[in-house]
Amino acid sequence: MNPRLSALHPYPFEKLRQLLALSGSPPAALTPISLSIGEPKHATPALITRAMQDAMAGLSVYPPTKGDALLRSTISNWISRRYGITPPDPETQVLPALGSREALFSFAQTIIDPTVDAIAVCPNPFYQIYEGASLLAGAQPYYINSQAELNFGYDWAAVPADVWHRTQLLFVCSPGNPAGNVMGLQEWQTLFELSDEHGFVIASDECYSEIYFDEADKPLGALQAASLLGRDDYRRLVCFSSLSKRSNVPGLRSGFIAGDAELIAQFLLYRTYHGSAMSPVVSQTSIAAWNDETHVFENRQLYREKFDAVLPILEPILDVARPDASFYLWAQTPCPDTDFVRDLYGATAVTALPGSFLAREAHGVNPGANRIRLALVAPKQQCVEAALRIADFVKNKY
Fold it and tell me: Which bin fits 382, alpha (ψ -120 to 50), beta or left (φ > 0)?
């Protein structure tokens, strides 16, 4: 058995299940509402389901590991339109992936050299795949804590030079999970300079990039930042994106990786043996999704309406604010986050996720402690009802 498996932590939702088992049964008259999992609940657009139905002939052929050429071109053109940059070369700088989760994990296996004392720098709190991918690739995670006073960003200068010297891979997530913070151009410049100095690769997770609130202020992307700073070769940089949140198709498992051509070539070599080629059915469906923005605009509007309805209820009783982007609220709790989530469920049948489950204790603190993540993915009426229950719970108990 691979001994590295023993280093993996229980997944947050397994820990949540065990925690909620301690709460007792919530009132039977209350319909359970889950705000714990970031799984989109909006309807999949009809144009996407029709595209899949029309693509069923693709079941009769093996898919190419490199992905459908038209899909790669479609993704390249979408990147160009979205970020206002020259299209990446679809032959060398773009690869379809079975969702960003699969690509993030397998990319780490490509990049990390386990024969040396490797480090992978992870934001803290973080998407658990970063940690698991690092550990199974043979790297030791180094956690950099988010700081509320930096809009839940990071003090990169606080990372010791000897850590950067051993770093092979840096994971970043913008818009962030769980706080929804967006990295600016100056921060990207800092990371590019550190990458140039120490030689590590940057993996930018951008799966929430299309859920934002101001149509005139879209979140900055990694490739866009590189282009603005004259790094058009995207050296030591790759970004990961997905249709799951953008187009409400988490079950489609479709995304992409784009960036440094040399890294993409090595990743393609790995995938030749990894066996993760995208089905022609999914490819044709994805082309339809990437080529349409109307449904994405409508999707954003649904989230805006939920934030507009929920925040006036929660802001008077919790330390919580609208994020830069994404569909999460990152709220401070008046007691330990695990106690709050356990008691909230027992009293109201509303499920939240303890922030400490998304983070590790590092540098003497757990930066997720005393916070909860609320995913506003349920229909608006349910989100409002959940917010009202949370407000009543806080007023009555605290």
Answer: alpha
Mean pLDDT of the chain: 97
Q: Which parts of the chain register pLDDT below 70? A: none
pTM, entire model = 0.96
Residue type, 257: I
Does residue 304 share a domain with residue 229?
Answer: no
Please state, in angstroms and rounded to a whole number, the distance separating the CA atoms of residues 112 and 171.
13
Closest CA to 180 of 321, 79, 359: 321
The predicted pLDDT at position 322 comes to: 97
Q: Where are the beta strands (DSSP E) in the chain?
A: 33-34, 94-97, 119-124, 140-145, 167-173, 201-205, 237-242, 255-259, 328-332, 350-351, 353-354, 371-375
Q: How far apart are CA 213 and CA 63, in angstroms?
A: 37
Q: What is Dmax (Cα atoms) for the chain?
A: 61
Q: Which two tokens stand for residue 386?
A: 């959940």
Give the CATH number for residue 132.
3.40.640.10
User: Domain check: are 67 and 186 in the same one?
Assistant: yes
CA dist 163 to 144, 166, 388, Å? Answer: 11, 5, 46
Residue 299: which domain range? Answer: 3-43+295-397
Bridge partner list, 237: 202
Helix (H) or strand (E) holding 68: none
Q: What angle in degrees, to the nearest 10, is found between the helix axes of 380-397 and 337-348?
A: 110
